[in-house]
Specification:
- The protein is an alpha+beta fold and 86 residues long.
- The chain has a domain of 60 residues.
- It is 31% helix and 13% strand.
- The protein contains three helices and two strands, in the order αββαα.
- A two-stranded antiparallel sheet has the order 1-2.
- The longest helix is centred in the C-terminal third of the chain and has 13 residues.
- The chain is globular.
- The mean pLDDT is 86.
């Protein structure tokens, strides 16, 4: 999926760990958490995430509750200045 939609070639050695979230339910997709070996790989994936628009697949960065609240409040106050969390 990554190579097809994002034009990124990933191998098993590029991913440190990955797992699904939530309980299995038939005919329902579950989120997947992926931790990459190199930060640069993550940055490449995040930069190309906009290419998934309209596919029903999305990529979000996992933030702590506090950081998510700070980012959310900044987006409300100055929506043009915030693109993503780093």
């Amino acid at each position: 999926m990554m190579s097809q939609h994002l034009d990124i070639h990933l191998e098993c050695r590029d991913i440190y760990v990955s797992h699904r979230l939530g309980k299995y339910t038939p005919n329902k997709d579950r989120p997947v958490i992926v931790k990459f070996v190199r930060r640069q790989t993550k940055i490449e994936v995040m930069n190309r995430a906009k290419l998934l628009k309209g596919t029903g697949v999305y990529i979000n960065e996992v933030l702590t509750k506090t950081n998510a609240e700070v980012l959310s409040s900044l987006r409300l106050k100055e929506p043009g200045r915030i693109e993503k969390a780093c």
